[in-house]
Amino acid sequence: MFRRLLVAFDGSVHARRALEEAIDLARPNGGTLTVMTVAPQPSVWAFSGYDVPVSVDPRDEQVLDEYRRILDRAVATVPPDLDVTRILIRGSAGPAIADEANAGGHDPS
To answer: Which CATH number fits the domain 4-98, given the four candidates 3.40.50.1000, 3.40.50.620, 3.40.50.300, 1.20.1340.10?
Structure first.
């Protein structure tokens, strides 16, 4: 029985199908979903006078906004009777997903 499911979502047909399957698994068991989207790390960074990273490429913020919309659309498909947590992070998708799967208390597949 699966109760805490992690779904990595990138907007692809396969990701949509995985989310549908996760919903089908979680509903009868009163489970919860975590839907995760990983935006690519910005390629160009500069430092402000306060040593805080600041993107120098305005497209980076546009990319992050697009991934946020992808995540929002995915979460909007989850029935209201299921608890869902959303995660949007930047980085390399494979390691980020593996880190969350290992550390987030999700059921093993």
So the answer is: 3.40.50.620
Q: What is the pLDDT along the chain (109 residues), one digit of tens a residue?
A: 778 999 999 999 999 999 999 999 999 988 999 999 999 886 555 445 555 665 556 677 888 999 999 999 999 999 999 999 999 999 999 999 999 999 878 887 6
Q: Is the dihedral of CA 105, 78, 82, 65 positive or negative?
A: positive
Q: Report which secondary-structure segment, H or E, holds 59.
A: helix 58-76
Domain residues of the chain, as ranges?
4-98
Strands in 2-102 per DSSP E: 4-8, 32-39, 45-47, 53-55, 83-90
